[in-house]
């Protein structure tokens, strides 16, 4: 037992009992929780206290792009900790400056300045505030199928049901429909038609809600938790054009989609669109230490050249967070991790999921890119009736819970969201590991097929 961490590394049942006695978990009813105690981890795997090893096809919360316990990340963390553990945001710090330099070098266009945060929700809070101060307008457009975080403003931006119990939220948020060709609310029959109609809808919402009142549109470049919705051709460029026309800023939330998840540094790189602000977190340093941030362009930066930016966080630009971001970006470059994520998507996951879809009538659609994929399950391919109803709870969610349990029994930790399995392994996962995981998904899907009518 260690002198400085006495009592840690107890047995699994003790860890769980202490958790249930003292820890209040997020997004959960506390009474029915049964968290798995994790003892150790490496790369794309983690291990529980009974020695069961799981392939982490969820990348924890889709943040572990570099994998568990990368030795160079740990070395960077120890090196920075030995040198300087903490420094207030008002000082200059080498790890922070280098992280800002590297991140803005990777970012598109003139997004050259970084405001660091502790995670994704606060990055979105600050992007919203910057947009309001820069434009002098207050309304923000946000997609109905979106998740932007759990702080007061970020949950108000969020379109999906997790917002509901947090209402009334913040005045000035207007929700709109983004594109979703498989379940088009625009009655579009092709992705191109979906783009055209989704853009017409966005334009109409802005026009009828008062164009002069809008500060920004915020959107997930690739919608994450709400379906891994890859924007159809021309959509992001169309949003950019509408923003320019109405003098509205474009905020790309890349908290989940950025830093390799989509097989590019930033997901917008796929479509060569330059937003005014990009928010990031998760993959920037894979959560080895909490870190997020807002990238802003020169025009927004100039707004605060003389005007004081009225916001900040004690831990903004934390040296341990920034040192691990620097290390992570360098490791990504040295070990060609972006390329690995891109290749896995194009040459393994996409092809294997297409085969899986052929074999299982319960698969309605597979979609994604990089290491960011969804398998959408239905009860009927013709009607596209979802395997479980929207926002299913309790017994209604049973088919997805059974699927999750079947994967876990076979050594795969899956990500289940609504009526979908999200295939979101770390960017460092090897091809054999991905194939092993997909074979388990394939086997488990037999269960979903049994519900097929
Ligand atoms: N934005 C998106 C797209 C996310 O997926 C998330 C979290 O999943 C957030 C924001 C919130 O990030 P955080 O949990 O770090 O506050």
TrEMBL record:
It comes from Leekyejoonella antrihumi. GO terms for molecular function: pyridoxal phosphate binding; transaminase activity. GO terms for cellular component: cytosol. The keyword Transferase applies. CDD domains: OAT_like (cd00610). Belongs to the class-III pyridoxal-phosphate-dependent aminotransferase family. It holds the Pfam family Aminotran_3. Keywords: Aminotransferase, Pyridoxal phosphate, Transferase. It comes from the Bacteria. This is Aspartate aminotransferase family protein. The keyword Amino-acid biosynthesis does not apply. PANTHER family: AMINOTRANSFERASE, AMINOTRANSFERASE CLASS-III.
């Amino acid at each position: 037992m260690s002198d400085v961490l006495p009592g840690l590394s107890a047995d699994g049942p003790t860890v769980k009992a202490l958790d249930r006695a003292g820890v209040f978990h997020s997004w959960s009813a506390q009474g029915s929780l049964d968290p798995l105690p994790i003892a150790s981890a490496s790369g794309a795997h983690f291990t529980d206290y009974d020695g069961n090893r799981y392939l982490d096809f969820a990348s924890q919360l889709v943040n572990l792009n570099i994998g568990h316990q990368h030795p160079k990340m740990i070395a960077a963390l120890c090196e920075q900790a030995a040198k300087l553990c903490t420094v207030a945001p008002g000082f200059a710090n080498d790890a922070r400056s280098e992280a800002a330099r590297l991140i803005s070098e990777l970012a598109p266009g003139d997004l050259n300045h970084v405001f660091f945060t502790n995670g994704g929700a606060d990055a979105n809070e600050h992007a919203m505030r910057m947009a309001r101060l820069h434009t002098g307008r207050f309304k923000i457009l946000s997609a109905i199928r979106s998740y932007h975080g759990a702080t007061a403003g970020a949950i108000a931006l969020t379109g999906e049901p997790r917002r509901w119990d947090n209402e009334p939220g913040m005045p000035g948020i207007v929700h709109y429909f983004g594109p979703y060709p498989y379940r088009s609310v625009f009655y579009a029959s092709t992705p191109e038609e979906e783009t055209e109609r989704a853009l017409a809808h966005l334009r109409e919402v802005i026009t009828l809600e008062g164009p002069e009142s809008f500060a920004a549109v915020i959107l997930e470049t690739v919608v994450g938790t709400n379906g891994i919705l890859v924007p159809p051709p021309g959509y992001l460029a169309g949003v950019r054009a509408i923003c320019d026309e109405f003098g509205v800023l474009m905020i790309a939330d890349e908290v989940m989609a950025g830093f390799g998840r989509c097989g590019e540094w930033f997901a917008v790189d796929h479509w060569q669109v330059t937003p005014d602000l990009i928010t990031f977190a998760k993959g920037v340093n894979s959560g080895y230490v909490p870190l997020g941030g807002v990238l802003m362009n020169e025009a927004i930066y100039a707004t605060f050249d003389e005007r004081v930016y009225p916001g900040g966080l004690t831990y903004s630009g934390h040296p341990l967070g920034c040192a691990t971001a620097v290390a992570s970006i360098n490791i990504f470059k040295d070990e060609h991790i972006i390329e690995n994520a891109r290749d896995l998507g194009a040459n393994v996951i996409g092809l294997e999921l297409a085969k899986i879809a052929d074999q299982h009538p319960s698969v309605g659609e597979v979609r994604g890119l990089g290491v960011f994929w969804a398998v959408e399950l239905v009860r009927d391919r013709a009607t596209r009736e979802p395997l479980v109803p929207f926002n299913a709870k309790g017994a209604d969610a049973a088919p997805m819970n059974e699927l999750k349990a079947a994967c876990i029994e076979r050594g795969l930790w899956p990500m289940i969201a609504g009526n979908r399995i999200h295939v979101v392994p770390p960017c460092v996962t090897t091809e054999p590991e991905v194939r092993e995981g997909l074979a388990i998904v394939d086997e488990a899907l037999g269960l979903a097929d049994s519900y097929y009518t």
